[in-house]
């Protein structure tokens, strides 16, 4: 195998696929990336796979001799990222799974492993292809990923439940303490029955990064090809391919958690509320505090929302902002991180907080724009 390519192309694509390299591989080969030089189309394919998440991309290269080899991902990435811009040459003519890298300032040798030992990325045989709007996917993922559990032992709660309909997509995520539901509109109507799948949040974070890194062509909406079937999901965007196992198990019926009506509505400027929370969180996040609790005091008469924190043996803080309030006054408390996460993942300028009491679920929705619903469970206050 021998090929010539640009340092910048190899560097950016190596960084992308390296996210699928496990930190603690179950097999030595999984800590490597697979390099495959295709002489016919003059492209270099780069693949990483942790047996759950797989990432594959390709770059333009001058292929002088076709072939494949696997190289330790971290070693190759560290070297490539530090090389000066310009052309680099990689070849394995020395044999014994040794690859030589040559650039304008010097050369390096790295020992790899036989590519035949590298596990093949799963293929979807029977899944129907659906073309999804990249913009709608990005919108849905940005509004929901934060609410998925980081604990993989929680099975389906560590994923995003995705429902693809002919005209829309629905994204749902919950870790048991909060819930995010986002509905987005497809650019083009899809000829399909409803498809439902739960995909690990880790894989969809990579899909989010991949979509965000691609520049759409003028006047052409960016589309993602998706293959969804029980056990496996594949997303393709240009020459980039992401494969992921799906999560087994029944996803909670989250619609039952969302109250149908509310007695109190509070509308505020989102960034102003975030800024006040960030300041007051300094006290709430002190290590001496058992809970990161912040109180929301809703004063209907004065049309003011006040935030307060009392940190035992440290101090206290209070912030007040103007709000449009309908309904009775109320004092309620939240985990400050959960409240902040929700507000930061609503893209609109203004947000409405919908409540019934200090112990029942609270809903946050944007004023106009994307159909986003965030649910927070309040923390019970003791007198």
What brief labels describe this structure?
383 residues; alpha+beta; DNA Polymerase III, Chain A, domain 2; 9-stranded antiparallel beta sheet; 8-stranded antiparallel beta sheet; 6 helices; elongated
Describe the structure.
- This protein has helices at residues 7-17, 73-82, 134-144, 201-213, 270-284, 336-344; strands at residues 2-6, 32-38, 43-49, 53-60, 62-65, 67-72, 87-91, 98-102, 107-111, 129-133, 159-164, 168-174, 178-185, 195-200, 223-229, 232-237, 240-245, 264-269, 293-299, 304-311, 315-322, 324-326, 330-335, 350-355, 362-366, 371-376.
- The longest helix is centred in the C-terminal third of the chain and has 15 residues, at 270-284.
- By secondary structure, the protein is of the alpha+beta class.
- It has 6 helices and 26 strands.
Helix content: 10-25%
Contiguous low-pLDDT stretches (5 residues minimum) are none
Q: What gyration radius follows from the Cα positions, in whole Å?
A: 25 Å
CATH architecture of the largest domain: Roll
As laid out across the biggest beta sheet, the strand order is 14-11-12-13-26-25-24-18-22
Arithmetic mean pLDDT: 92
In CATH terms, the superfamily of the largest domain is DNA Polymerase III, subunit A, domain 2
Q: Structural class of the secondary structure composition?
A: alpha+beta
């Amino acid at each position: 195998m021998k090929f010539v390519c640009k340092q910048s192309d190899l560097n950016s694509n190596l960084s992308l696929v390296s996210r699928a390299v496990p930190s603690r591989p179950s097999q030595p080969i999984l800590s490597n990336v697979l390099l495959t030089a295709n002489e016919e189309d003059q492209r270099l394919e780069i693949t990483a796979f942790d047996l759950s998440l797989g990432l594959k991309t390709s770059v333009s290269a001058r292929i002088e001799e076709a072939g494949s080899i696997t190289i330790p991902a971290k070693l190759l990435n560290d070297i490539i990222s530090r090389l000066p811009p310009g052309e680099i040459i990689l070849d394995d003519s020395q044999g014994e799974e040794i690859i030589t890298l040559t650039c304008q300032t010097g050369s390096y040798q790295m020992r790899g492993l036989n590519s035949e030992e590298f596990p093949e990325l799963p293929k979807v045989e029977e899944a129907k292809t659906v073309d999804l709007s990249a913009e709608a996917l990005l919108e849905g993922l940005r509004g929901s990923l934060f609410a998925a559990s980081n604990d993989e032992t929680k099975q389906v709660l560590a994923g995003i439940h995705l429902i693809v309909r002919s005209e829309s997509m629905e994204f749902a995520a919950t870790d048991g303490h909060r819930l995010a539901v986002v509905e987005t509109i497809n650019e083009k109507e899809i000829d399909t029955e409803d498809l439902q799948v739960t995909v690990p949040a880790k894989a969809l974070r990579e899909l989010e990064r991949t979509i965000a890194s691609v520049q759409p062509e003028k006047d052409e909406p960016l589309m993602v090809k998706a293959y969804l079937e029980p056990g496996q999901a594949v997303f393709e965007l240009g020459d980039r391919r992401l494969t992921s196992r799906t999560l087994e198990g029944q996803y909670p019926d989250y619609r039952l958690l969302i109250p149908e009506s509310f007695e109190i509505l509070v509308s505020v400027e989102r960034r102003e509320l975030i800024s006040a929370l960030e300041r007051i969180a300094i006290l709430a996040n002190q290590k001496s505090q058992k809970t990161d609790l912040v109180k929301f005091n809703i004063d209907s008469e004065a049309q003011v929302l006040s935030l307060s924190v009392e940190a035992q043996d440290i101090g206290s803080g209070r912030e007040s902002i103007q709000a449009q309030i309908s309904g009775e006054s109320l004092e309620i408390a939240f985990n400050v991180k959960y409240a902040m996460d929700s507000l930061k993942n609503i893209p609109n300028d203004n947000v409405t907080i919908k409540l019934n009491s200090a112990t029942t679920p609270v809903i946050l929705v944007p004023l106009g724009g994307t159909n986003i619903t965030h649910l927070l469970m309040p923390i019970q206050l003791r007198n």
